[in-house]
């Protein structure tokens, strides 16, 4: 019922937002920048804010058409290497003669599309052969495709790494830090030839008992039955995944926005001033951010509930209880994969020390093969996107990969 009400509201507002966008575009032609047209500019700005306020369930483009490689502009082609109903291994293929380190970027399955890591990919691309997990919106996955829980997520990571082949590397951002650690542990134990040479875990909840945040407190505030009853719903039958149980991406987004509501309100007020004042550069930056932020995807209910139960409530990984298809996951058996953990000083989603906990779990690695970096001044997104990521975090990621080759 919750999903039906949400979708009905979206359907009702869609033509209103479309009308606002169209009317705003027409009125823009009557604004000549002179004082007498100032009210027109104000009204146009309000219409644009209304027109761009809705959620979308369509993955935005990565937009990585070209990249500079050694002072040469090189074309980038998105190539689907391997697909299942739940995700695609996407390769950003470059036609260059020199081989580069192959890196699998594991994107979060936490309500946003993999394009949230667009800047992560852009920064990696000049010096690396980049692949990414392009997860499918669960409301577009037919029920006949079966379940997708934590075991299946780990299976996908292993299969994708095998598709990349021996000698590759892996980088996980946020939520997938736990299943990626489990995947690398399982591959190490099985002596899988495709076991990555390095593993970078960025702002991920390895041990949420450390420096708990509001997100962690919410997960602890109710039992798992409450989450299933109140936050899981059924996809309407009009979509490909009709009948599938999901955690709606709209709910996840609303939870994140409520944590920083003042910041979002301020951002939209500032956008109004940008539009009225004619600051197109700042206005475009606002549009790019919120076009991505308001694009949401639903999560399979099994994966969401198992993540809450094992990662945020049971702390299965740090307590040695985490399993993969019933077999214990043993991070101490990782012996040849260089490890870097990255945390943000101001991260209000994944507290300081939660990701670094992986260093102690990977006790089979020599001390010189496992390191933590605490990024000063960075919040959650600043760890993998923006100036600090490009100039301070990325050089450490690059060095970790180079030293592992």
Automatic annotation (TrEMBL):
Q: Which domain of life is it from?
A: Bacteria
Query: Which PANTHER family does the annotation name?
Result: BLR0908 PROTEIN (PTHR36837:SF4), POLY(3-HYDROXYALKANOATE) POLYMERASE SUBUNIT PHAC (PTHR36837)
Using the record's annotation, list all stretches that form the PHB de-polymerase C-terminal domain.
Answer: 203-403
Alphabetized InterPro entries for the sequence: AB_hydrolase_fold, PHA/PHB_synthase, PHB_depo_C, PHB_depoly_PhaZ
Show the SUPFAM superfamilies listed in the entry: alpha/beta-Hydrolases
Give the gene name.
Answer: phaZ
One family name in Pfam for this protein: PHB_depo_C
Which named protein is this? Polyhydroxyalkanoate depolymerase
């Amino acid at each position: 019922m919750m999903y039906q009400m949400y979708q009905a509201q979206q359907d009702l507002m869609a033509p209103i937002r479309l009308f606002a966008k169209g009317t705003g575009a027409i009125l823009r032609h009557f604004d000549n920048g002179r004082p007498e047209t100032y009210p027109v500019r104000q009204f146009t700005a309000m219409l644009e804010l209304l027109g761009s306020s809705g959620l979308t369930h369509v993955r935005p483009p990565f937009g990585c058409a070209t990249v500079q490689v050694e002072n040469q502009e090189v074309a980038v082609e998105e190539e689907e290497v391997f697909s299942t109903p739940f995700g695609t291994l996407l390769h950003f293929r470059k036609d260059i003669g020199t081989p580069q380190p192959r890196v699998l970027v594991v994107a979060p399955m936490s309500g946003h599309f993999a394009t949230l890591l667009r800047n992560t990919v852009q920064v990696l691309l000049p010096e690396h052969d980049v692949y990414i997990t392009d997860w499918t919106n669960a409301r577009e996955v037919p029920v006949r495709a079966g379940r997708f829980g934590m075991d299946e997520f780990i299976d996908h990571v292993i299969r994708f790494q095998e598709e990349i082949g021996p000698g590759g590397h892996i980088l996980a951002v946020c939520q997938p830090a736990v299943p990626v650690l489990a995947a690398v542990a399982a591959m190490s134990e099985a002596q899988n030839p495709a076991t990555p040479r390095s593993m970078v875990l960025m702002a991920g909840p390895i041990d949420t008992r450390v420096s708990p945040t509001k997100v962690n407190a919410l997960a602890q505030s109710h039992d798992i039955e409450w989450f299933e009853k109140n936050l899981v719903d059924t996809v309407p039958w009009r979509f490909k995944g009709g009948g599938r149980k999901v955690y709606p991406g709209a709910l996840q987004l609303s939870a994140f926005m409520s944590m920083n509501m003042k910041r979002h309100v301020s951002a939209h007020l500032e956008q109004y001033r940008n539009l009225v004042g004619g600051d197109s550069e700042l206005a475009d930056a606002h549009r790019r951010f919120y076009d991505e932020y308001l694009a949401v995807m639903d999560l399979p209910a099994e994966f969401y509930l198992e993540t809450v139960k094992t990662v945020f409530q049971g702390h299965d990984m740090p307590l040695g209880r985490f399993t993969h298809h019933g077999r214990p996951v043993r991070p101490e058996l990782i012996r040849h994969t260089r490890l870097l953990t990255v945390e943000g000083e101001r991260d209000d989603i994944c507290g300081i020390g939660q990701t670094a906990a992986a260093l102690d779990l990977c006790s089979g690695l020599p001390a010189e093969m496992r390191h933590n970096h605490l990024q000063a001044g960075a919040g959650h997104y600043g760890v993998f996107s923006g100036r600090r990521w490009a100039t301070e975090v990325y050089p450490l990621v690059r060095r970790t990969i180079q030293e592992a080759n």
